[in-house]
Every structure is written in structure tokens, then in C-alpha cells.
Design brief:
By secondary structure, this protein is an alpha+beta fold. 46% of the residues lie in helices and 24% in strands. Helix 3 packs across helix 4 (65-74). The longest helix has 16 residues, at 39-54.
């Protein structure tokens, strides 16, 4: 995926790091032209990680843990795609339309 200049500017303005975009690309749910990881998705993934840590299956945090915590803090993150380009990214909690 190619990041446009527009998405790079929005990432800086909204405090969305590249690792968060990569996480959303890998684990996000497709909704219209958006890929989304909602707050509920992030909470569920974190619960699963903590459960595995308690059971001794995981000793340290997985690679996407920091991105997941950031998504949770922001209330969810969505990216808008057009072909193979990432057009923009935003926090779901900002009320930018209904993400379904």
C-alpha cells in the first residue's frame, strides 16, 4: 500500500503512527472503502493477549501490542483506501460518520 501525502499529513496531525496503520491494514474489518479497528475490537484483542499471558502461553507483549494500546486510547482508528493507496486516516471516536 502506498501512503499519499494527504494521509501522511493527517497522521501527523492526529497522532497516528505508521505501526498503527500497519496494524489496521493487517487486522482491520473492511467497511465500504474503510478498514477499521474499533475500540471494541481493540479491547477484545487485549483481553485475549492478557488471558494468554495469565495462562503462561505468552511471556512478553506481541509485536502489535503498542499499536493496539494506541488504537484503544483513540477510541478506534480507520483508514480510507482508494485502489492501492491509503487516502486518509482518522480516529473513530471523532464522530466522522458512522463506521459500520
Amino acid at each position: 500500500m502506498r501512503k499519499t501525502k494527504h494521509v501522511q499529513a493527517r497522521m501527523c496531525q492526529r497522532g497516528i503512527r505508521g505501526e498503527v496503520i500497519d496494524f489496521v491494514l493487517e487486522f482491520g474489518s473492511y467497511s465500504r472503502s474503510k478498514l477499521v479497528v474499533t475500540r471494541q475490537d481493540a479491547e477484545g484483542m487485549l483481553r485475549a493477549i492478557k488471558r494468554q499471558q495469565r495462562q503462561g502461553r505468552m511471556r512478553e507483549a506481541p509485536p502489535g501490542y503498542r499499536a493496539l494500546k494506541t488504537i484503544l486510547d483513540k477510541g478506534g482508528v480507520a483508514i480510507v483506501l482508494k485502489g492501492w493507496d491509503i487516502v486518509t486516516a482518522f480516529n473513530v471516536s471523532t464522530g466522522w460518520g458512522v463506521v459500520r
